[in-house]
Amino acid sequence: MEKRQLGRTEIAIAPLVFGGNVFGWTADETTSFRLLDAFFDAGFNAIDTADVYSAWAPGNKGGESEMIIGKWLRQTKRPRDEVVIITKVGSDMGEGRKGLSEKWISKAVDDSLLRLNTDYIDLYLSHWPDADTPYEETLGAYQALVKQGKVRAIGASNLDAGQLRQSLDVARENGLPRYDVLQPEYNLYDRSSFDGALRNLCIAEEIGVITYYSLASGFLSGKYRSHKDLEGKVRGKSVAKYLDGRGMRILGALDEIAAEKAATQAEIALAWIMARRGVTAPIASATSLEQLQSLTKAAEIELSEEDCRRLNEASE
């Protein structure tokens, strides 16, 4: 499968990243192993997770996703250099363990490495902006990790254009490593925070972009079209906000193009992101082999300019 260069880094990834937020939550260890094996067998090579995944699940405290990935790495026969691991630091792990200070990053990275059963992280992301810590301190901490060989490249999630611009300026002025990858929320419905100034900055600065919530918490799969469809669903509250006129317009366009391409709505929604200038790859999760097989088909779909125009108009 053709790989895409991740910004200016030396990392190349397939055009779809597996979202490890489901590991230890809606996918148990055995299921997670099967999903990862199938994903890599299909020619994909990158997994996204975070130290805090999946602390929100009853009985969890964070680190469960990384631990499952680490156990899988221990038993898989794939060479480590064929697996791109993306993880994040900064979310609240409880007991004051949060943020982007040098002290916490240096501790958190070792915790993640231990859970992941590896001696280096391919891409380490600042999960959230930290107003209490200057960029110089955070980027200095990452510089040390890169020199130590614990991290190959760094990036950030959830920054706006102003914050990303400031971080790039600080890196340049102080001779520090810059954020070479951005992870924004982005999908056919949630476009406003990335399209525009932030997307333009990423293109101008050659910053790799991997998008999260690429299927709008499952809404763009077409499974949820009324509040009744959400009853008893784990992500029901997250999806409810999409059940408006614009959401139905988007589903209508997805329905039409999916029928024309003999594909699913989710496959078309992911193919649209893959086709967007400035985006390296979307992140998507699956909890069954059937779901995974569908998601991976998205990389084979070629949308025409007319297809993209119809989707863009529906989502305006």
Number of strands: 10
Number of helices: 11
Main sheet attributes: strand count, strand direction, barrel closure: 8 strands, parallel, barrel
Helix content: 40-55%
Mean pLDDT: 96
Shape: globular
Question: What is the CA-atom radius of gyration, in angstroms?
Answer: 19 Å
Distance between the termini: 32 Å
Strand order of the largest sheet: 3-4-5-6-7-8-9-10
Compressed to H and E, one letter per element, the order equals EEEHEHEHEHEHEHEHHHEHH
Low-confidence stretches: none
Beta-strand proportion: 5-15%
Structural class: alpha/beta
Protein topology:
Layout: E1 4-5, E2 12-13, E3 17-19, H1 29-41, E4 46-48, H2 64-75, E5 84-89, H3 102-116, E6 121-126, H4 135-148, E7 151-157, H5 161-174, E8 181-183, H6 197-204, E9 208-211, H7 236-240, H8 245-261, H9 265-275, E10 281-284, H10 289-297, H11 305-314
Parallel strand pairs: 3-4, 3-10, 4-5, 5-6, 6-7, 7-8, 8-9, 9-10
Antiparallel strand pairs: 1-2
Helix pairs in contact: 1-10, 2-3, 3-4, 5-6, 8-9, 8-11
